[in-house]
């Protein structure tokens, strides 16, 4: 309690908390898009359950990673060398996560562009079990969390501040995941755009794993611009349907 009271009375702690919350929320955009797309593959009656359980498990894993933050920081040290290039545990995690996202996005795009047909000729949509969705949500969240935790440790040494920032960011994701998933499900063109985002994010993680860092700001700027263009297209389509 003395630590909490001391931090609450320190303006620098409030500034660090606000910065960390903003960083965690922004870095959570990638994860939020993935969760929205993945939960839409679950049976409609169980989508909310899959999103809620997945995010709660992700929160537990993030807090556990924060508790071992000192060990997480050391993941940046080289553990192996391939063709003269050193790789750390962080690099290998980013490579694995990037390859998974590229595979996932490519598979989903292929199913949308060239879907398998059911017996009645309608597109066949493969459903995910809740357990499978939870495993994928937690695994990809761990990949996305590594960098954010390393950055958080570099910004502040106060564990309570990091915990509050992570809990707040996951809370925002819980609130936003449902509406985002519903919006993507209702708009097929937005779905394709979101899959393209995942493909781009996967390639960014792979590049980062090989040591070629790409500022996330450029990625988010491209995502924002593409989303703005798609919004204008949606408005244009709606107005054209209303025109006599």
Question: In a nutshell, what does this entry contain?
Answer:
By secondary structure, the chain is mainly alpha-helical.
Secondary structure topology:
Blueprint: H1 2-8, H2 11-39, H3 47-67, H4 69-73, E1 78-82, E2 85-88, H5 89-113, H6 130-155, H7 159-186, H8 188-209, H9 216-242
Antiparallel strand pairs: 1-2
Helix pairs in contact: 2-6, 2-7, 2-8, 3-6, 3-7, 5-6, 5-8, 7-8, 8-9
Structure description:
The protein has 244 residues and is mainly alpha-helical. The chain has one domain. It is built from nine helices and two strands, in the order ααααββααααα. The chain has a two-stranded antiparallel ribbon. Strand 1 and strand 2 (85-88) form a beta hairpin. Helix 2 runs parallel beside helix 7 and helix 2 (11-39) crosses helix 8. The chain is globular. The relative contact order is 0.18. The mean pLDDT is 76.
Defining traits:
globular; mainly alpha; 9 helices; 244 residues; two-stranded antiparallel ribbon
Order of helices and strands: HHHHEEHHHHH
- Tally of DSSP helical segments: 9
Shape: globular
Binned strand content: under 5%
N- to C-terminal distance: 67 Å
Mean pLDDT: 76
Structural class: mainly alpha
């Amino acid at each position: 309690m003395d630590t909490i009271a001391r931090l609450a009375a320190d303006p620098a702690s409030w500034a660090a908390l606000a910065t960390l919350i903003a960083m965690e929320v922004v870095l959570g955009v990638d994860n939020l898009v993935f969760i929205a797309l993945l939960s839409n593959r679950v049976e409609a009656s169980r989508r909310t359950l899959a999103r809620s359980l997945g995010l709660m498990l992700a929160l537990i894993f993030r807090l556990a990673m924060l508790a071992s933050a000192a060990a997480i920081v050391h993941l940046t040290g080289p553990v192996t060398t391939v063709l003269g290039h050193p790789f750390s545990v962080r690099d290998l995690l980013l490579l694995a996560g990037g390859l998974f996202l590229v595979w996932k996005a490519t598979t989903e795009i292929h199913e949308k562009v060239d879907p398998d047909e059911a017996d009645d000729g309608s597109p066949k949509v493969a459903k995910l079990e809740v357990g499978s969705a939870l495993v994928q949500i937690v695994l990809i969240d761990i990949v996305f969390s590594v960098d954010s935790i390393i950055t958080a440790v570099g910004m502040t040494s106060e564990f309570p501040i990091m915990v509050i920032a992570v809990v707040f960011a996951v809370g925002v994701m819980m609130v936003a995941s449902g509406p985002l998933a519903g919006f993507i499900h209702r708009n097929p063109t937005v779905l394709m755009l979101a899959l393209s985002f995942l493909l781009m994010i996967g390639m960014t993680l792979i590049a980062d794993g090989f040591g070629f860092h790409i500022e996330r700001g450029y990625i988010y700027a491209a995502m924002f611009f593409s989303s703005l263009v798609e919004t204008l297209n949606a408005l244009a389509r709606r107005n054209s349907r209303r025109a006599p």
